[in-house]
Amino acid sequence: MSSDLSKAAGRVERVRAAYTSQTCSCCGTVDRDSRESQAAFRCRSCGYTANADVNAAINIAAGRAVTARGADAVPSAVKREPQLTTSA
Asked: Residues 52, 38: contact at Cβ < 8 Å?
């Protein structure tokens, strides 16, 4: 896997997946009861509903993995690769 990471240096970020399936991707509330079933997620705070795996994937993609106590989100990198402009 390390060779795969070296191919995408600066573009791949490690994100802890803990609690992403229990975190609302809309409002950020962490509640284990929001995961109604293996497939269903419904936030008891804001009412957002989604497939549980899709909700978790949104949280991971946004870097919203949380600590075990449901505290702050994992900070995401703010640096981006330069985008080359092409002439038309």
From this structure: yes
CB atoms within 10 A of CB 55: 25
Using only C-alpha atoms, the chain has a radius of gyration, in whole angstroms, of 16
CA distance 37 to 17: 18
28: left (phi over 0), alpha (psi -120 to 50) or beta: left
pLDDT of 5-58, one tens digit each? 566 666 666 777 788 889 999 999 999 999 989 999 999 999 999 999 999 999
The encoded tokens of residue 8 equal: 């995408």
- Its pTM stands at 0.58
Contact (CB, 8 A) for 41 and 34: yes
